[in-house]
Amino acid sequence: MATLQELADDAMRMVQTDPRLARAEALRVRAAARRAGDAGAESAAERVLGLAGRESNDVGPAARHLRRAVAIADEAGLPVAAARARMTLSLVRADQGDIAGAMGLGEAAAPYLEGVEAARLGHQLALVAQRRGLFAEALRGYGSALAVFRREGDLHWEARVRNNRGVLYAYRGNPGPAETDLRRAEELYAALGQDLAVADVRWNRGFAAGRDGRVVTALTHLAAAEDHYVKNHLSPAMIMMDRCDVLLSAGLYEEARDVATAAVRELARRRMAADLAEARLLLAAAALACGDLTAARHAARLAERAFARQVRPGWAAVARYTLLRADWAAGRHGPALLRAAVDGAAALREAGWAGPAADAALIAARSALAAGRPDQATALLRHTGRARRPGNPAALRVSAWHAMALLRIASGDRRGAEAALRAGVRALDEHRLTLGATELRVRAAEHGFDLVMTALRLAVASGSARSLLIWAERGRAAAQQLRPAGPPEDPELAAEFAELRAVAAVREQDLAEGRDARRHQQRQAHLERSIRDRVRTTRPVLPGSRGGALRTGRLTEHLAGRSLVELIAVDGTLYAVVLTGNRLTRHELGPVEAVNAEIRALRFALHRMSLGHPAGRSGADRLDRMLLGPLRPVLGDDGLVIAVSGRLHGVPWQMLPTCAGRTVSVVPSALAWLRAATAAPAGEGTVLVAGPGLPGAADEIRTLGVRYGAAHALAGDQARVADVLQAMDGSACTHIAAHGTFRADNPQFSTLGLADGPLTVYDLETLRRPPALVVLSACDSGLSTVHRGDEIMGFAAALLALGTRSVIATVAPVRDGAARDVMVCLHDELRAGSSPSVALAAAQRASSGDPAASAFICHGAG
């Protein structure tokens, strides 16, 4: 029969596989030990209870159990048992932020532990040193402990050391050693049957991949770990912190802020002071990325004070770096910021934070340049530029190449600066190729925004229209140069999509009938979040870009008499580059904010007109004078291809007098237009779809069906998502008349209402052969969310990236049934052989100024 001590040891082994089961067994052992007067077994049981609490992130109860374990052993005169309890308590004290207390407990335990147990204590002290930011000391401690465990064949503790050392290597920017240690730890834990520990290693592999810039791998590992924690009723707060870090690196700032806020709330509730300080630091970074400087400073100051109390100077340096970034973003570029940036970069380098150190040095260098201190700036930029070597994370390499460009600009080497800027863009493109999900590709532009803006400033200063056009093209809509990767073939994902459609349909019905739809709304939000997380793990489907260098000769050849107008915003000023024939000209149009104000006013007027209210066209006249008036002398009378920027994606161009009577094609970039225009015509057959609940949709489709004769028409119950997708795959033309909802918060969940629920942008990305032409006669179906770098998301953007040549859609609400006559005229022109942009222009001319016609624009080749 097993002794009570042996039963306690068995419970200890359970901690890594099932903390709840270990706790239940430890409670039984403790009760039996108390009845038997076995102090050693009772102390061991309390230690198990403490470790189980720590694994469940309940550090308050964990500390109480471990203090009792120490007291029981001390009172019974069991120094080794007391030392073991102190060793574990030292980790919990570190979790609580009492780093000095943790070190004191470890030192008190050391004289009573020998051999393997002394090595275990050495590992614990190394972990505490890591929490303090003493990375070199921690590495030495891990190495010494690992040598003992390998010699003694202690696989469990070898796995623990490798797990923690792998995290440390990731912190120090050494991805190769980190992955080696973490893979080996995962193998060992799997062989030992310790599922929770395997999940912990997956979590750490996610953290390490995130530090290395491998976003898809990071999200995959973190999702697996979080699923395990949730299924086993454990708090995922710590995993949420690492997910926040990855979301920040991916440019998903608003979501990162939400995750950080939730993590801070959970860790504060559990009184995990050390981790709470780190979570506050993440919250500060997320708030800063969202542009909320006040919240960023508040969270960073709270974190800095906590790190100071916890004697964690390396972490405190990161908190001061966040405050430095907030000051830089606020425009405080004076001598005080320069000194703080120089000191901060040095402190961060000393603490082993390579990425923040490089960024702080870049801020210092730019401050030095602004202060007229070129020598100091040169030294700082040279140091930062060393990080451009292959193998470093993409964001770090982009910053390093930016530093080299600034260095060469300062020395008057314009050609060298442009070479460095091109290298930085290539580094960003290489990173983008590792991403599958559209959302991640779009957000990747954040890493290169400052670099591209430097290039555009150079181009503006040069006065060269060609240079401005080339750099605008290098910096915008790069995500569209890659075909989107469709959602993974995952049965659980397919089930979630099906449930989402059903829940959305029920929610709409409840709202229409005046019932409380909050429960369905909450379920819809949960499903959307889960789908989004799953889709983000999608791997890229193509090895490279479909784009290429912009050649104005090819543009001229395919424009065939049309003029290209590329609109470019640089430092608050809007410029236009116009290509007419072989002539390239540059024009300064005025302040971006003044243009944006007119766009907002015009869209409001168009909305009122769609509701039947009278509204003047003076706004269209003013916007036309701002945007196209200065260009009329070079435009001639032929058609236009307009490459737009920012809010200009939502302009109803046909309302502008200069566009009246012309064909107009709207594109995110000249390269996107050229790719669409040169794509071989593909597909056959016409698909006509009428969604439910839209007066006039069925009549619109019937009328068009009569004209086409052999068209594949889907209406009523036949217009289901799967059937519509199957029909439109490989078609020459697909026309969908359905209720449309544009989701600015997440454009991938923008919808077209069909019989069994919404068709989303995610659904479109499953098409193998997209239609050559798509016509969407739904409200706002042509709207896009525009992110930094003029990266866009929405129905039209998704279809063009898939390979659809032209998309005709609306950028404003359209009255139910009001689009019918416009659509009939459009298709009559298409059937007569007109191109999409010519057909749309003819339909709009025939509409006699109907706002329903003005809301439509032609995207793509035209």
UniProtKB/TrEMBL annotation:
SUPFAM superfamilies, alphabetized: TPR-like
Domain CHAT as annotated: residue spans: 620-848
Gene3D superfamilies hit by this protein: Tetratricopeptide repeat domain
InterPro entries, per database record: CHAT_dom, TPR-like_helical_dom_sf
The protein's name in its UniProt record: CHAT domain-containing protein
